Amino acid sequence: MTSTVPRLRDRLLRLAELATTPLVPSDYLDILNPLRAGADLRGRIEEIRPETRDAVTLVIRPGRGWRPHTPGQYVRIGVDVDGVRQWRAYSLTSPADRADGRITVTVKAIPDGVVSNHLVRRARPGTVIQLDQATGDFVLPAERPEKVLFITAGSGITPVMGMLRSALGDQRDLGDIVLLHSAPTSQDVIFAGELRALRGRITLIELHTDTDGMLDVADLGKLVPDFAERETWACGPTGLLDALQAHYTERDLTLRTERFRPTVLVTGDGGTVTFANSNTVVSTDGTGPLLDAGEAAGVLMPSGCRMGICFGCVVPLREGAVRDLRNGALTTAAPGDGVRIQTCVTAAAGDCTIEL
Amino acid sequence: MTALTATSRGPVEHLSAEDIELLGKELDAIRQQILDSRGERDAAYIRKVIDAQRKLELTSRGILLFSLFPPAWLVGTAGLGIAKILENMEIGHNIMHGQWDWMRDPKIHSTTWEWDNASPSAQWKHSHNELHHTYTNVIGKDNDLGYGIMRVDEDQKWHPIYLGQPLWNFVNACIFEYGIAAYDLELGKNLHKRRRKNPEFQARLKQALKKIRGQMTKDYVIHPLLSGPSALTTLTANLTANLIRNLWTHSVIMCGHFPEGVQTFSKKSIDGESRGEWYLRQMLGSANISGGPLMHLMTGNLSYQIEHHLFPDLPSNRYQEIAPKVQELFERYGLTYVSGSLPKQVASAWGKVIRLSLPNDLLDKLGKLTKAVKPA
Ligand code: FES
Q1: Are A112 and A58 in contact (CB under 8 A)?
Q2: What are the phi and psi torsion angles at B61 (to 5°)?
Q3: Residue B26 above 50 pLDDT?
Q4: Are the beta carbons of A60 and A44 closer than 8 angstroms?
Q5: Given an 8 Å threshold on Cβ–Cβ distance, is B39 in contact with A83?
Q6: Which CATH number does A42-131 carry?
Q7: Helix, coil or strand: residue A151
Q8: What atom of ligand 1 comes closest to residue A305's alpha carbon?
């Protein structure tokens, strides 16, 4: 008895597949409801709330397949900007168990940030975006430490806000928490109202760097005298995190950090090309196509016309930067971006990893 | 018309090597303009076409569940035929060309798209994108020219077997999707005893048969069965829709490279060809179909065959915009932009098929004969 229902469902699914080939049933169902159970994970932006002059919070209704996150984790979001799908990671700022099932991320526009500027200034409610499941280990342990220090700067507050909101939702005592947060001015502090309202339950130290100057890690002992006794989480610009890391390593202390897009791409000419699945590494000067470089190194490269018209040579660029030899256009990729390139008309413009 | 060779340069005699390089640069600039402005509007376009096509297909198949009623049969069949044409031409053909790869949407990508046609996408991309688009109109290299079964140029030696070519061209038109599958498999060459056992060919054959089985099961078994009492009429409806699609696509494709005025090239003429010369060959080897927006949509913008051959990877919705610029280049470089209405081009292409089924001088001789019989 018990197995009849699944078997029937399998049969129906098989029938639907036969009826829709060469597409799959979900190609049609997606037209009706892109957020349904069983669909690729997507979300719909339902609200966009301004936070500061250059930051907004996106309230997203995730698809049915969404698995609740742990506060502090991030989610990768695929947004179409000028028609091109771009993937970026943003920390979740919502508590794990919002009653309405929605999630939030908070985005600050960074100079030249293709995605962040789009989300802050141009995105509209109703837009469907691509999602990955939440991930990341920048989280509080199950056993909550007694004394905690959060060091954040700018949008680095976002994962910490997720943690604080969750802890508040628990109705439990927050414990002994110090939050040391830097922002250019008082108006630039994201979640300022909410954070300041927490005073009394947490110790909030705001640094307004336009007037106070940047946080100097040497001053940490002055600002937070007992920092060495606190379990510490830090999130902010690379420079700050590097300085903090050095400071903590010297003192043999543990620091947990969250960094997004850590690799700085070198986009000069040429670079080391790694063919990941063939265990082959070649260095190129960036004047000839990747196709030639790979073939010369004995990699089995797919190819066709070798002049950029047939798309028979398209392969995934896992990471790195390449330049189109026809017009100099630059393409960059980070893992998970799903960027594919034509090897016959592109050259390395920095170190690259190709999935071949 | 005879093939252009390295020595007889016919319609390009007046162009120097520098002219041709300059022409190439001008075309590169046109391409760049589109790349620079490619964006949201284009992405919205292809998504809208895909969305509309799927809704049309679903609705038509839904209507065909009641195909026992003649009006339902008529509407459903027409809708399904149109849906299949849209899928094959404006959507499938163009996506497989990589026209939409820049969107980085894995669902609308040349590496993932499988089209509603007997030929597996992978095989089509090889024979079409790679062979046909690289070796456009080069006799002996571009199988699209007569699909290896027809005489397409005066320079090809006549053989009595070609007397039948109007007939097979018609048969091929009716079953065009299988014709394409067969020719993507290079059946003519591969059915030889020696090559038949070739494991690589065997694998491709298996792949094609699997695709064909899937296609046939869908159209001729599953959907008729789902129609219950309308099973038989749904079967005929699906057959008809596929026939409509086959005849239409065959006609459009014939118009692309067959009408009078389109050049063919000898193998030798493309030795060491430069980018500019390649462009030039595309210009001389293709022909457009004139018409309105509906014509362009239903031909998958292959009505802009010339523009498509110059820039096979530009989004199809933009060909219309660059056509005047391309046409201006033709004029400035003293070349002929072959274009005509669908009926005119179809008639012209058929005229050529029929003419070339006979020996070159036969018509002349007949003419002389009639003159001799009836002296003025
Ligand atoms: S080999 Fe044809 S596009 Fe690269």
Answers
A1: no
A2: -65, -35
A3: yes
A4: yes
A5: yes
A6: 2.40.30.10
A7: strand
A8: 2
CB < 8 Å to B95, chain A = none
What's the rounded Cα separation, in Å, for the pair A218 and B355?
Answer: 91
Percent of chain A with pLDDT over 70: 96
Whole-model pTM: value is 0.90
CATH 3.10.20.30 for domain A271-354, yes or no, is yes
For residue range B212-236, what is the model confidence (pLDDT) as tens digits?
999 999 999 999 999 999 999 999 9
Instruction: Calculate Rg over the CA atoms of chain A.
Output: 24
- A-B CB pairs within 8 A amount to 107
Residue B376: CB atoms within 10 Å: 3
Average pLDDT over residues B341-364: 90
Which pLDDT band, with edges at 50, 70 and 90, does A263 fall under? very low
Residue B44 has phi, psi (to 5 degrees) of: -65, -35
> Given the CA of residue B129, which atom of ligand 1 is nearest to it?
2
Q: What is the pLDDT of residue A271?
A: 92
Please name the member of B39, B109, B226 whose beta carbon is closest to the beta carbon of A19: B226
CATH 3.40.50.80, domain A147-258, yes or no: yes
Closest Cα partner for B43 from A27, A86, A328, A41?
A: A86
pLDDT in tens, A175-231: 899 999 999 999 999 999 999 999 988 999 999 999 999 999 999 999 999 999 999
**CA dihedral over B309, B311, B312, B315, signed as positive or negative:** negative
Interior/surface letters B132-156, b for 16+ CB within 10 angstroms, e for the rest: bbbbbbbbebbbbbbbebbbbbeeb
Give B232's contacts (C-beta < 8 A, 6+ positions apart). Answer: B224
CA distances from B188 to A122, B30, B131, B143, B184 (A): 56, 40, 16, 11, 10
Give the span between the Cα atoms of A131 and B275, in whole angstroms.
42
Quick one: pLDDT at residue A264?
Answer: 47
**Residues 117-156 in B contacting A (C-alpha not used; CB under 8 Å):** 125-126, 129-130, 133-134
Contact A304 B134 (CB under 8 A): yes
Residues of chain A with CATH 2.40.30.10: 42-131
d(CA B123, CA A304) in angstroms, rounded, equals: 12
Chain B CB contacts of A355 below 8 Å: none
Q: Provide the 8-state DSSP code for B316.
A: G
- Is residue A102 pLDDT above 50, yes or no? yes
- The band of B375, judged by pLDDT with boundaries at 50, 70 and 90, is very low
Instruction: Find residues 275-304 of chain B whose CB sits inside 8 Å of chain A.
Output: 275, 278
B319: nearest Cα among B341, B297, B343: B297
| Six-digit token string for B186 | 């290079």
Would you say A295 and A317 are in contact if contact means Cβ atoms under 8 Å apart? no
pLDDT at residue B160, as a whole number: 92
Nearest residue in chain B measured CA to CA from A130: B105
In the predicted model, what is the mean pLDDT of residues B282-291?
A: 96
Token output for B42: 């284009």
pLDDT given at position A338: 83
Q: What is the ipTM of this complex?
A: 0.90
Tokens encoding A18:
């036969």
Q: Which residues of chain B are within 8 Å of residue A314 when distances are taken between CB atoms? A: 98, 101, 110-111
Q: What's the pLDDT band for A305 if we cut at 50, 70, 90?
A: confident
Name the 3-class secondary structure at B359: coil
What pLDDT, on a 0 to 100 scale, did the predictor assign at position A48? 98
Does an H or E element contain A293, and which?
A: helix A290-296
Task: Return residue ranges of chain A for CATH 3.40.50.80.
Answer: 147-258
Largest separation between any pair of C-alpha atoms in chain A = 73
